[in-house]
UniProtKB/TrEMBL annotation:
Chemical reaction(s) catalysed: L-aspartyl-tRNA(Asn) + L-glutamine + ATP + H2O = L-asparaginyl-tRNA(Asn) + L-glutamate + ADP + phosphate + 2 H(+); L-glutamyl-tRNA(Gln) + L-glutamine + ATP + H2O = L-glutaminyl-tRNA(Gln) + L-glutamate + ADP + phosphate + H(+)
GO biological process: glutaminyl-tRNAGln biosynthesis via transamidation; translation
Listed EC numbers: 6.3.5.-
Organism: Sanguibacter inulinus
Pfam families given in the database record: GatB_N (PF02934), GatB_Yqey (PF02637)
Domain of life according to the entry: Bacteria
Family as reported in the entry's similarity comment: Belongs to the GatB/GatE family. GatB subfamily.
The protein's name in its UniProt record: Aspartyl/glutamyl-tRNA(Asn/Gln) amidotransferase subunit B
Subunit and interaction comment: Heterotrimer of A, B and C subunits.
Keywords linked to the UniProt accession: ATP-binding, Ligase, Nucleotide-binding, Protein biosynthesis, Transferase
Amino acid sequence: MSHSAHVDLVDYDEAVARFDPVIGIEVHVELGTKTKMFCAAEVEFGGAPNTQTTPVSLGLPGALPVVNGKAVESAIKIGLALNCSIAESCRFARKNYFYPDVPKNFQTSQYDEPIAFDGYLDVELDDGSIFRVEIERAHMEEDAGKNTHVGGSTGRIHGADHSLVDYNRAGIPLVEIVTRPIEGAGDRAPEVARAYVQTLRDIFRALDVSEARMERGNVRADVNLSLRATPESPLGTRTETKNVNSFRSIERAVRYEVSRQAAVLDAGKTVTQETRHWHEDTSTTTAGRVKSDAEDYRYFPEPDLVPVEPSREWVEEIRATLPEMPADRRRRLQGDWGFSDPEMRDVVNAGALELIETTIAAGSSPAAARKWWMGELARAAKTTEVELADLPVTPEQIGQLQSLVDSGRINDKMARQVLEGVLAGEGSPEEVVVARGLEIVSDDGPLLEAIDTVLAAQPDIVEKIRSGNLGPIGAVIGAVMKATRGQADAGRVRELVVERIG
């Protein structure tokens, strides 16, 4: 079935009024270690296919795996940041499953003995309310290789002439974080899902365990969703939407599945337990393979690896080095900057926190940094449909722009023109000011000339001002500003006009 085929949907608001959505999210994060999980193959993004392999990652006979200590440390950091207990001893298992992109034909994963378990994460939603997501486990495993299906129109195996496989990714360390069923989110389930993955991404970055770039697949989310008649009813049949790779799409995928499953149930049919593929272009999901439960795979204890037994001293050492968590940092910065709750929320939702922080470090006041990023630059990002951070301007340049305003060399109106120039690739704020001739005229000579010309043309106004009626002075200032193409300092013009009329 092509993904443009007609699918019945129930309006989202109607669906959540009649059904109770329950979600579960599995997040895979690629750890930023130098080498793979079980061998010394070096990992670098974007390398030529099959250049980052060793006998272990190719599953060659007789090659023995060794656990990457750095990956274990990163997994413990993640577990602690998610308020989990850290296992005193845990083992790896072989998950026997035919993967064309796993040359040894099993994935090494922590099946029933995760390194971290029983945690939670408090997630802040758009309106500032806190939603607690219970975390069942965080376990270590390895990534699979990557298939490329050649020929055919969809890029999938169906209809392809042949497939290529790149084993560079096979064996990269992953931590998979699995939530317990998330209940009680109601109509806010899409928002909870997005905010949860967003918070996780921020934590990975703060811990420095991963670059955590979703667009590169460093963070991948699988979203499980089921509907039930009431919060008291047993759980419904779930679908698992795979590899949703942006925050916006996570939200959209949940909304879509709620609407689709509600239509299936309304038609008196049953929801099929299956994986579903998310289509970014149409914002829809289509059926993948019928999904088996974990119990249907065969797991065997991995005979080539000893149990991982992190000592309590080491766990406490790691705990002592944990950085400030993103939510605490936000609260601290909000206090330092003096932003109101709604202002701070807007900043966070726009992805502008780091940008504003760096702009302030470059010498701008918090209020000015916020004004630029949430005003002109947010509009420019919206118009060009890019993220704020991807605009062709740096926080340092915004800091420079603001200091040009603060020093009185340019006014606000000119600053906007300078920014236009920077965004158009005309160089730094300073270079644009010079090239476009955007500088306030501070030399009184040209100003006095302009004032004299304006006053000579309007002798009646001069009389009014002389007699103490200062009303018309605004019109004089306006005319002088016009004559100097807005490059005069209005305050100085006013002083000079008053002096001249004296």
